[in-house]
Write a structure and sequence with these properties.
mainly alpha
């Protein structure tokens, strides 16, 4: 009688965990960056022109601060084991990707040349990778904790 070996299919959980961890860390740094920009805009008190966020220049600092705070909170929640607590990170990554995609099709957004187009393309690619990594983080099963 021939012995059958069952080979586990799929990627190792270490790779999934590392890819999901990259999403958490990258979104945390992005959120801190947006908080810093928004906080600086509030401290200076002037108008900010941030073309990727479709708000008036007077409200751009508050919008950046709120977006950054949401990203930081979503990243902090995504560290936990609960799958429901990982949903805000997925929502943030989807909103980021859809916002960068929509910016291309807005009539008031203009590229300043080929370098601006390339930079936006790299940001769009990065946000897509963050969306994929956030999805992986969402789908990664929780760790089994020992009873001891």
């Amino acid at each position: 009688m021939a012995r059958q070996f069952k080979i586990k299919s799929g990627r190792p959980s270490f790779i999934r965990g590392a890819f999901g961890g990259i999403a958490v860390i990258a979104n945390l740094f992005l959120g801190l960056y947006l908080c810093a920009l928004g906080g600086l805009g509030l401290i200076v008190g002037g108008e900010m022109f941030f073309p990727l966020v479709p708000v008036s220049p007077e409200a751009a600092a508050v919008a950046l601060l709120l977006l950054g705070l949401f990203a930081v909170v979503a990243s902090a929640l995504a560290i936990s084991d609960g799958r429901l607590k990982r949903i805000p990170l997925l929502v943030w990554a989807a909103a980021l990707f859809s916002g960068l995609t929509a910016a291309v099709f807005r009539g008031d957004y203009r590229f300043d040349g080929i370098e601006s187009f390339k930079a936006h393309g790299w940001m769009l690619l990065g946000s897509f990778l963050l969306l994929c990594a956030s999805w992986v983080r969402y789908k990664t099963p929780s760790r089994k904790r020992s009873l001891y």
